[in-house]
Amino acid sequence: MQRLLRHLLLLLCLLLSAYPLLWMTLASLRTDADVLEHPFAWPSSWQLRSYGDVLAAGGFGSASANLTLLLAAFPLAAAAFLWMADLVQFRLRLWHLPFLLALGGALLAAQRHPALHRALQARPGFANAYLNSLTLCIAAVTAAVMLAALAAFALSRLKFRGSNLLFLTFMLGMMIPVHVTLIPLNLLLGPQLLNLKGSPWALVGPYVAFAIPVSVLILRNAFDAIPADLLDAAQIDGCTPWLIFRHVAIPLAKPALATLVIFNFLTCWNEFAFALTLADSRRPTLPIALHHFKGEQGSLDIPVICAALVISVAPLLIVYACAQRHIIRGLTAGAVKE
Amino acid sequence: MKPSKATLLLFLLPATAVFVCFALAPILGSLAMSLLNWTQGPRPIPAGLDNYRRVLTDIVFWRAALNNLVILVASLAIQLPIAAALAILLSYPTRCRGLFRTAFFAPMVMPTIAIALLWLYLYAPVDGLATRLCQRLLPGQGQTAVIHWLSATSSSIWLPSPSLAAIFVTICWQYVGFHLVLFMAGIAAIPQDHFEAARLDGASELQIARHVILPSLRPTIAVSATLSIIGSLKYFDLIYLMGGAMAETDREVIATYIYRLAFEQGQGRFGQGSAAAVLLFLAALAIVIPLQRWRLRQSRD
């Protein structure tokens, strides 16, 4: 009896939690009138028109061309994410190289395509925002994890004056609200100084800077956990700190690195405030593309907005469903590993 | 290991340079910018403490601070207990426990803009799902009720707008899963014999929750609470995205106040925004540093 009651209660909470997402998916597949008249009912008829509308907006201007770009971008993003997070092992072989070059070339060419370029001046599309977010996240996450690994190794294993002070300074970055830096960063990246504002690259600096503190914390703990004997042995064998870092510490810290890639990738992928302030609406990241899409559509057509939501959220949820254990561990890492 | 100077530089310089350039320097920059007036012509002129005076006498700033405070208290008093209760419910042998965990955590991987857009529909005044649900539940007159979930005005300057509660529901929807996972990990770490001993002594399930689980969860609760507190000081996304329809004096938290002063059309008040940013930074330090010290002491004991 008690057991049944508990399961019912949990199911109710599950319903509250999952229903909005279910409703969103269903609403994207039905007509506007149907949604308005019977919002709770199962759809009376199904249609894919909303997806066509979303895909036809921006980008190449044609739904099928945009869909192709999107279908190329999604596996690429998922593969890059999973590979960087060490969830799929993939060893680069020489014969892969032509394929990779062809794929990269095709994507670059697609982005540089005159038709796309012209259309983007008017309205950026989701496919394009995907590629922007993808390049931005790969660059920022790679840089952040590499820089943080170097610093964390020094803070954990090298002895120098001011080590503690430096560590505390990094930790300060985790505590302060990022919005304190919005105005000065706007000036720093603006036309008078770095002149990066408007390109997605403007976001790399701030993203890396604010990913470093938590990465340093987790990696320092990981390096601290390596037995000192192991490092001493390497040192006696004549390894320099760099060689120890590269060939002993990094391989042993792989789980922590994977965790950090997940955490930083998702934080960057979803980040809103910096992207809103520093990126151009013509070359948006995915969240900003969604924001503008809503702005253009007004609040008229629910299915179309829901289709846009599904297009931008479903890939994330699919990757999440496949690797949920790792992703949950990654996102809670900063809190659990004290 | 005692490294040479060059090695040390190789390891530390890159991260430190980026961090100083894009995080620390801008904070100091805020301080400098808050002492200048940016609205009079193309070049800023010294303004002394004018910007601070303007911010501190602005009712919107204080209302924003109040909203931050309300979100903070509500996170601690409502969100964490919900998460803890769910975690305790899930701690018994449950079918598909993993599924529950995955589903509750799912909103954490979504971009907040997607969450905001979705909930803007749920809260639409005439035909949103929340309104429709209320229309079904209310008898008579209620069936044609129009509910302004997200544009209710506050009744007194000492109270936040009721719409903040609506937004807070969304905040809970987003974050409960996160704290739930932390609590589940905390409960899983409690040795089984504690439960068995309590059951042998004839403790009821409620008593076990109260006297076995909660005390053992104290470190986890401290972590969750710290994260909630830091998080509510930083809060920006959902308030900015969902609060647009609220009255201008009701809709801000400090972060959105800074953003609107500086970047909303026709504003460009970098000085006043920076002054608010400096105040937010000081408030964050004043809250976070004692909190961390307290936690350090706790973990040493």
Secondary structure elements and pairings:
The complex is a heterodimer of chains A (338) and B (301).
Chain A: H1 2-27, H2 32-37, H3 49-56, H4 63-84, H5 96-112, H6 114-122, H7 126-157, H8 163-175, H9 182-188, H10 204-224, H11 228-236, H12 241-252, H13 254-270, H14 273-278, H15 286-297, H16 302-322, H17 324-336
Chain B: H1 5-33, E1 36-37, E2 45-46, H2 50-56, H3 59-91, H4 97-105, H5 112-122, H6 129-137, H7 163-188, H8 192-200, H9 205-216, H10 218-234, H11 237-242, H12 254-263, H13 270-300
Helix pairs in contact in B: 1-13, 2-13, 3-7, 3-10, 4-7, 7-10, 10-13, 12-13
Descriptive report:
The complex is a heterodimer of chains A (338) and B (301). Chain A has one domain: MetI-like fold. With 338 residues, chain A is mainly alpha-helical. Helices cover 74% and strands 0% of the residues of chain A. Chain B has 301 residues and is mainly α. Chain B has a domain at 59-118 and 157-300: MetI-like (MetI-like fold). Chain B is 69% helix and 1% strand. Chain B has a two-stranded antiparallel ribbon. In chain B, a hairpin with a 7-residue loop joins strand 1 (36-37) and strand 2. The two termini of chain B are 31 Å apart. The mean pLDDT of chain B is 87. At the A-B interface, helix 1, helix 7, helix 8, helix 9 and helix 10 of A face helix 1, helix 3, helix 4, helix 5 and helix 7 of B.
Summarize the structure.
The complex is a heterodimer of chains A (338) and B (301). Chain A is 74% helix and 0% strand. Chain A has helices at 2-27, 32-37, 49-56, 63-84, 96-112, 114-122, 126-157, 163-175, 182-188, 204-224, 228-236, 241-252, 254-270, 273-278, 286-297, 302-322, 324-336.
